[in-house]
UniProtKB/TrEMBL annotation:
Keyword Hydrolase found: yes
Gene3D superfamilies in the cross-refs: Hotdog Thioesterase
Keyword list, A-Z: Hydrolase
PROSITE patterns: 4HBCOA_THIOESTERASE
Pfam families: 4HBT_2 (PF13279)
Assigned protein family: Belongs to the 4-hydroxybenzoyl-CoA thioesterase family.
Species name: Chryseobacterium profundimaris
Protein name from the UniProt record: Acyl-CoA thioester hydrolase
Superkingdom of origin: Bacteria
InterPro entries: 4-hydroxybenzoyl-CoA_TE (IPR050563), HB-CoA_thioesterase_AS (IPR008272), HotDog_dom_sf (IPR029069), YbgC/YbaW (IPR006684)
GO MF annotations, alphabetized: hydrolase activity
Amino acid sequence: MQSKKTILSCTEEVRVRFNETDPLGIVWHGHYIVYFEDGREAFGRQHGLTYLDIQKSGYVTPIVKSTCEHFLPLKYGETFKIVTTFVNAISAKLIYQYELFNENNQLVCSGETIQVFLDSDNNLCLYNPEFFQTWKDKMGLP
């Protein structure tokens, strides 16, 4: 559990594109996972933990679990916010939680992804890679 002082999050604003909608004009459910990725990338840029940083350190972080709950639809042309929050874990993994809010600040969708670290030989890392532990220390995360 992380304290209020060490919560790291990022908010990104996105506009629904035409190609993301179904014939009813609402966002197709599969695109919400892509929105989660938009949130992760924005988080990485803001907090210095991008996929490129991870790759340069010799690791990849495949997703091993994702959840997504839908509450309200998003429609073509609407803007919405993706709030991405890093969940600190002792184990060697990246856990992100997501909340998407529409223009009326109503919760549209929430979810979570879990990623693990694999080294250059595709071995699962049981301990935090050195670069990741350095990042956590810099961010004030235990």
